[in-house]
Amino acid sequence: MEPKTSLIISTYNNTEALALLLKSVRLQAVLPEEVIVADDGSGDTTKELIKKEKESFPVPLIHVWQPDEGFRLAHIRNKAIAQARYDYLISIDGDIILHHHFIRDHKAFAEAGCFIQGGRVILFETASKKILKSGETHISFFNPAIYNRHNTISVPLLSRIFTRTHIQSVRRIRGCNASFWKKDLIKINGYNERFVGWGSEDKELAVRLYNAGIKLKVIKFGAVCYHLHHKLKISNRRLERNNQLLREAQRLKTVECEEGISKYLP
Question: Would you say domain 5-264 falls under CATH 3.40.50.720?
């Protein structure tokens, strides 16, 4: 039996992309049971968008917000996970467009003792601008100005053949397209809130899941999503510290982080 799901969307001050993402959620062949927008301090325009979307959204749409105190993705994801009402969590970024079978594929491949990593199609700046202007959520293999073109292919038979389990790699990990059992995240105390600033919080989470005996399943030819172009300002100082935390979890074989989701749980 396929699990009931909470779709968690991480966002920060990008209402144009978020509106298109929510449109792609509406068009899913199989809907999640709820959608939680994990908002790392956006302004009123995001709040107004979500308020408007709630009026006709096909499933409960929940806005979890925290004050803007810099890049604190680990914190807001933990807060959203704590509020999720369902056993299986699908995590994406707010600048993603979903293939119409995205939720179906994550549900179909959910397996006890595993978490899932999906791929992404990268939309270059010209393609992203065109899509945002048109509001079109259908993207195909033949669209111009895309990277990782093979990741546009969604074929259930190929997906069953090429999806692999038992892969323990941080190179493959990207928080923009992943899914987990909520109980597994609680077991390792969720995201490590020592991570502040961009980089490696999702990889460190994966390492602790591996250390807890949870296996990685990498979906191919399914769970397709499209990543809109954006400019990223990275602080090398914070990135190096975050990578040190990642190496520490690997070296010490850490399972449960000290600063995590437990503070938000009843």
Answer: no
